[in-house]
Every structure is written in C-alpha cells, then in structure tokens.
Amino acid sequence: MSDDALFLFLTTSIIYFKEEEEDRSDKEEVIKDKTSINIMTQKQQTTISLQVKNLSYAYPMEPSEIIKDFTLELPKGSRCLLSGANGAGKSTLLQILAGKTMVAEDKVRVLGRPPFHDFNLSCSGELSYLGSQWRRNVGSAGGDVPLAGDFPARQMIFGVENVDPERRERLIKLLDIDLDWSMMALSDGQRRRVQICLGLLKPYEVLLCDEITVDLDILGRLDLLKFFEEECEERGATIIYATHIFDGMHDWMTHLAFISNGELKYGQGGRKEDIEEIKGIDHLLSTIEDWLRVDRDETKARKLLEGPKKRVDPYAHFGSRQMSYYGC
Ligand SMILES: Nc1ncnc2c1ncn2[C@@H]1O[C@H](COP(=O)(O)OP(=O)(O)OP(=O)(O)O)[C@@H](O)[C@H]1O
C-alpha cells in the first residue's frame, strides 16, 4: 500500500469510527432518555397522590350517612372521572377531599397529608378545588348574586399575587377572556371563564372539579379538558372531575369511579383499561346510562323499604319552632 493510500485509509477509518461513536452516543442519549421517561412513568404510577380509606360521613343533624365506607386511591398524573346520579354524594365527597369538611385525619390523604387538618395544602395552592362552594365565593356577592361594582376582569385576574405571568397569559388565551369585561355585566359562561381562570392560576398538584364546565360552550370545554390533560402529563398533576357531561370523557379520563348512594359502586376508581364494561371502544355514555338505570331502580326499592327519612330537629330542645309559630 502506498503512503497516500495508507493515509486515505486511516483518515476514512477515523471519520467512520467517529461518526459511529457519535451515532452510538446519540442512541445512548435516546435510550437514557427513554429509560428516564420509563422510570418517571413507573414512578408516577406508583406514587399515590390521593387516598381515601373506608370513609363514612353524615351531615350534622342528618340521620343517615351520605358517604359510606368509601375507599379510593389515585396515582400521580391520573385523571379520574367521578360519576353518579343526582344526590349520589359526589359534591359531598369532593368537599371532604378539598378539606372543607372535617373528617378523621387518617381517612383522607392528599399528597400524603390530611386536607382538613393541613391548612397549608389549600393555602399553598397544591390542592385546588373548583366546586359549588367556590362558585358561590368567587366573583359573587353570595348565593347566586353576581359581584356588584363596575370593575374589569383584569382587576380580578391580575389581583392574584405570585402568579407566573406566562401561565396567566396562557389561561387568559385558553379561556378566551376579554380583560375589559365588566364583572357585573357578564353572561353565566363568561363569569365561569373568569372564575375558572382564577382557580387555575396557581399550578396545583391535585385539582378537584365539580361540574365546572356546565356553562361553557363546546370549544371552551374541550380546550379546558385538553389543558387539564397536559397538566397531568407534563407536570404530573392529579385531577378528579365530577360531571354529568360525558362528551369526550372516554379518551380524556385515565380512571373511573361511579358513586351510588354514597358508595363506590362501579369502576372502583380503577384504570379505564381494567374496567370490563368500557374496555377498548368508547362505551362510556351507554355504560353510565346502564349503571344509572340500575341505580335508580335500586334507590326506589330502597326508599320504599326504608320509608320516609326521620330528620333530627335541631330546635327540638328549645321549643323555638313553637315560638316562631306564635311569632307569626
Ligand atoms: N349541607 C347539607 N346538609 C344535609 N344534607 C346535604 C347537604 N348537602 C347535600 N346534602 C345531601 O347529601 C346528598 C348528596 O348530595 P351531593 O350534593 O353530594 O350529591 P351529588 O352527587 O353532588 O349530586 P348532583 O349530581 O346533583 O350535584 C343529597 O341527598 C343531599 O340532599
């Protein structure tokens, strides 16, 4: 081999090996990345962010329990659809999980902490609740009376401190909010958009939603569901979403719980892939319809058997009811 040929051979080999090495290290990067994603997914799946253990609850002065021996466990990053008939106990359960109602410390854990006793869970924004109580408190003067006063949506949204400006911008765009909207002259859907924006400004780790999208138009609802999905997949947020609207929910949810008369009856809060009735194709609506029909028949039968509910009269000891009659 001539000197020139030897030189050419050596240079080509060096270039080839270098390229091979670069290629291999690229591949290794990808494999490393994939491994870390896998580890994250496994970690996400094994990290429990919300836990309810044999929870029972009765409202004060009420004779019967509204939540009965309820057990649920949700991993980080999951999106659980909470379903059930009117009066089944969904809002009551969400209010307990949100720490608005006191139950024993060991019955409910959110991010490993008891939500009622650990006040900081909600104050820090780690646990966020958008529900009936919240609807009455945010942007309203109490009950269903809208806040009076001619101030713009901007004032409410920019009034929340310590918010990431990028997140705020994103939410304003997503919810199609006009910052000049006057809070006293909004439609129900517009008010709900401002309320939802306020509730989502802080990056929660666990979000509890109780029928928040009823007033939104289809686009608003679908965009919001997409946003929630990204929050779970990118940040590992966990969401429980109670609704009677199932459009788009089959693909959206990762877990399903159907509550009947305060008990976890179908779905068991399990992964949707493991629930026989909705496995594979989108059978969610028809399945929930079937469950609701069975539930309605059972409730009727139970009520017939139980007879009328006996309520505790809180004024019985004071005779004030009689006094009020005299007053009339
Ligand atoms: N403050 C309260 N005091 C006493 N009983 C209550 C109170 N709030 C709700 N209930 C009762 O608890 C039961 C469950 O109500 P809850 O609001 O949790 O049901 P839900 O599943 O959210 O219903 P919906 O789908 O209509 O919103 C109902 O029978 C209701 O009458």
Automatic annotation (TrEMBL):
Coiled coil: none annotated. It comes from the Eukaryota. Residues 50-288 form the ABC transporter domain. One of its GO terms (molecular function) is ATP hydrolysis activity. Keywords: ATP-binding, Nucleotide-binding. The keyword Repeat does not apply. It holds the Pfam family ABC_tran. This is ABC transporter domain-containing protein.
